[in-house]
Amino acid sequence: MEKVKAWIAAARLRTLPLSVSGIIVGSSLAVSNFYSTTLFWLAIFVTVGFQVLSNFANDYGDGVKGTDKKREGEQRMVASGKITPKQMKVGMFISGSLTFFVATVLIFLAFGNGNFVVSFVFFNLTLLAILAAVKYTVGKKAYGYSGFGDLFVFLFFGLLSVLGSYFLFTKSIHWPVLLPAISIGCFSMAVLNLNNMRDIENDAQAGKKTLVVRMGIKRAKVYHAALLVLGMATAIGYSLFQGGTGWHWLYLMAFLPLVWNLKTVFQNKEPRKLDGELKKVALSTFLFAILFALFP
Known about the structure:
45% of the residues are buried. The chain has 13 helices and no strands. Helix 8 runs antiparallel to helix 11 and helix 11 (217-242) runs antiparallel to helix 12 (255-267). Helices cover 74% and strands 0% of the residues.
C-alpha cells in the first residue's frame, strides 16, 4: 500500500487538471458535443499520460542530480528513497509506452488511412512530446536546467494542446483559435513560473538555471504579471472577435483568483510560501477551460 501511495504521489495528480485544459478548450471550439466523442476522451488520456510521464521523469531527473534534496513543497519520491531510480525508469517506460499506444489509436481514428501526411506529422509530434517530457530534467542537456522550460510549456500545453485537439476534429485550423491557445499557454507558463520562484534558492544552488534564476525574483514577478495579463487579454480578445454574448462571459469568474494571485505574488517576501499559489493558478486555468467550453 505504501508503494502504491508513493507512485500516486510521483504522478502528482494536482498537475492533471492543468494538463487537460488545452484539450477541453480546443475540442470545444471544434464541436459542440465534444465531451461525448471518443476522440476527446482518447486525447484526454494521451495528455494525462504525457503529464504523468513528465512528472515521473522530473522526479527521476531532479532526484538523481540531487536537485530535490532541499526542495520546498510536495515531497519527491526518488529523492526521498520511496521509489528507486531504477523503478522510476521502469515507470517512465510503462507510462510512455502506454501513452504512445493510445496516441497511435487516436491518430488512426482521427485521420484513418487516407491522410498519411497528417498522420505522419501527428505521429512525430507524439514522439516529440514524449522526448520533451523526458528531457525536461533527464540527461546532461536537460532543457529545464537551461531556462527553456517556459518555452516548451507554452508550445505543448498551449499551442499544440489547443490547436492540435481542434485539428483532430476539424482537419483544419481557424486562426482565431490561436488566441485561447495563447491564453492556456500563458497560464501554464505562469504555473511553471510560480514553481520556479518557489524553488529559486534551491535551483540556484543545484545549478538549475531556470528563467527565474536567470532573471531574478523581481523580474520574475513582472514576468508573471505579464503572462497572466496576456492570457486574460487574448481570451477576451477572442470573445470580442467572435461576438460572445450572455453566458459566454461567465469564464471571467475564473480570472478573479488570477488577479488575487498577482497581489499575493507581488507582496510575497518568502518564495517558499508560493507553493499554494501553484494550485490556485492551475485550478483557475482549469475552471476557465470548463466555463469557456460549456458556454461558447
